[in-house]
């Protein structure tokens, strides 16, 4: 990888955005950082919406009444898996929109549980994160204990 070129990964690639480069003394969640995350979230949301449209078109175009029950079952299973995936993505779109509202309200980037900074790198990995890594880890441990 050439020096000075950061590799775009995950949601950064969806929005065609480079990883954010912080400067010394830069205030956390300044306008430049908020704009960076807004662009990431909007790109991610657009990509998810395009997937929904593709699925709808695919299901309409590929729907067939197969005389063979095995073929019909295979197609129904395929459609079922696609719909389940799109339902998860629909929920993610709602979470993205909730996060965009937090950006507009200047309430983005801070842990909902303890109030500390979530961190640029964690937010680039998961822009919808609403807890710092410590609070999220504790929440997951509690969740495991309650389930087990």
Describe it:
This protein is mainly alpha-helical. It has a single domain (11-147), classed as Up-down Bundle (Four Helix Bundle (Hemerythrin (Met), subunit A)). It is built from five helices and no strands. The radius of gyration is 20 Å and the shape is elongated. The termini are far apart. The model has no long low-confidence stretch (mean pLDDT 89).
Briefly say what this structure is.
The protein has 148 residues and is mostly helical. The chain contains 5 helices and no strands. Helix 2 runs antiparallel to helix 3.
Write down how many β-strands occur, each being a DSSP E stretch of 2 or more residues.
0
- SSE series: HHHHH
Q: What is the CATH homologous superfamily assignment? A: DksA, coiled-coil domain
Count, helices: 5
CATH class: Mainly Alpha
Strand content: under 5%
* Main beta-sheet annotation: none
Share of residues in helices: 55-70%
End-to-end separation: 45 Å
- In total, the number of domains comes to 1
CATH topology: Four Helix Bundle (Hemerythrin (Met), subunit A)
Mean pLDDT: 89
Radius of gyration: 20 Å
| CATH architecture designation | Up-down Bundle
Structural category is mainly alpha
Shape category: elongated
Uncertain stretches of 5 or more adjacent residues: none
Keywords: Cytoplasm, Metal-binding, Zinc, Zinc-finger
Domain Zinc finger DksA/TraR C4-type: 107-139
Domain DnaK suppressor protein DksA N-terminal: 33-103
Family: Belongs to the DksA family.
Layout of strands and helices, then pairs:
Layout: H1 11-14, H2 31-62, H3 69-104, H4 120-125, H5 133-147
């Amino acid at each position: 990888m050439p020096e000075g070129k950061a590799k775009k990964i995950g949601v950064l690639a969806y929005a065609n955005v480079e990883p954010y480069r912080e400067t010394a003394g830069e205030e956390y969640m300044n306008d430049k950082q908020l704009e960076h995350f807004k662009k990431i979230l909007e790109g991610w949301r657009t990509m998810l919406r395009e997937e929904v449209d593709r699925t709808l078109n695919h299901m309409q175009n590929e729907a067939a009444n197969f005389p063979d029950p095995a073929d019909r079952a295979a197609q129904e299973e395929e459609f079922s898996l696609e719909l389940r995936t799109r339902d998860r993505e629909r929920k993610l779109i709602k979470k993205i929109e909730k996060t965009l509202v937090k950006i507009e309200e200047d309430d983005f980037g801070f842990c909902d549980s303890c109030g500390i900074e979530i961190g640029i790198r964690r937010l680039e990995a998961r822009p919808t994160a609403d807890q710092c890594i410590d609070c999220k880890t504790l929440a997951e441990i509690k969740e495991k204990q309650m389930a087990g």
